[in-house]
Amino acid sequence: MIWCSLLALQAAANGDLELREIYSQSSEFWPKAHVDEGVVAEEIGLLPDVSFPKQNPFNVAKLFLGEKLFHDPLLSHSKQIACASCHEPELGWADGKKTSFGHNRQRGKRNAPSIENVAFSTSFFWDGRAKTLEQQALLPIQDPIEMNLSLTDMVSRLKQKPEYKTAFSAAFGDNAITALRVGQALATFQRTIVSRRSDFDMFLMAGKQKTEKLRAIYSNAMSDQAIWGMHLFRTKARCMNCHHGPTFSDNQFHSLGLTYYQRKLQDLGRYLFTQDPSDVGKFKTPSLRGVMNTKPWMHNGVFADMEGLLNFYNAGGAKFTKKEEDPLSPETSKLLHPLNLSKKELDALAAFLQAITASPAVGPSPKFTQ
């Protein structure tokens, strides 16, 4: 392992020529990731299989019911907004806007996150206020700025549609239509939206291919520049302090200094849910799989291009220190530091982010519908 780390340093200096060989090995032989003391970083890698909770087991009829509900504007007060209005497949299951429009064209304060790979999340919304996907699915429907419909009215509307009685019966064994079941069906559908195989995934799978031709195709899926970017991501760029594991997210909450405290765009983040002053300005670490499909980025969509976003991290974020006299003043995460990355290194990081971005999923993963 020490030899491997030394070789990686030499390879980076020599323009990545040896990095391909190093990262073609099993991840246990990769150079050690650069993370701060106390950070337990899971290695980046392939996505695991999707699991479904015991309280809401999978069946295909429930999936199709959830898909129908997801695209039905009947779930909004105006009958003009569906869940899919802010989560469009062609836009990476986000909506391409800084912040989304909702009921009566009201603009929300936060960027619509992608639902791709949401099955692997452990909390939901930018502030983590929902603990389960079933709970999350019902909150935008009730939100007065988003869909503005009470659950009672939603259920009443669905009961008036004979096709929904048939669909609920197929999914749950009887035709009782309840808000709980709506949430379960929507969550089941969302868990089947899994990202396609990326160039990064193909590279990791090269050694498992049965023919030399396939191994070469998979191995060359990532460019030398992207492999260098992966090395930087794991080491000098310090990205794995927060973006690690198969989804490239620690599922935790951090402050990057984008609270805009006492300014027009102020958003106190997780504090608004927990009321804990230490949570001021903290937002959930988003998954980076498919990241290039989902601009603009950050909780308020403030970054529209990746160059600007990477320069922000290269500078160490926006630095704020909490003031003793003001418990709601923001404090930037200590995990952020100036990185002093060169233009070529930033370009390599961008190439790696492209390599972990596949074309958006067009719908439920075929493994769930076949």
Q: Would you write up a description of this structure?
A:
The protein is mostly helical. Helices cover 34% and strands 2% of the residues. It contains 14 helices and 2 strands. It has helices at 2-13, 19-23, 60-70, 133-142, 151-159, 162-172, 179-191, 199-204, 212-219, 224-234, 271-274, 306-314, 343-355, 366-369; strands at residues 253-255, 282-284. Strands 1-2 form a two-stranded antiparallel ribbon. Helix 3 crosses helix 7, helix 4 crosses helix 7 and helix 12 packs across helix 13 (343-355). The protein starts with a helix and ends with a helix.
Question: How is the secondary structure organized here?
Answer:
Elements lengths: L1 H12 L5 H5 L36 H11 L62 H10 L8 H9 L2 H11 L6 H13 L7 H6 L7 H8 L4 H11 L18 E3 L15 H4 L7 E3 L21 H9 L28 H13 L10 H4 L1
Antiparallel strand pairs: 1-2
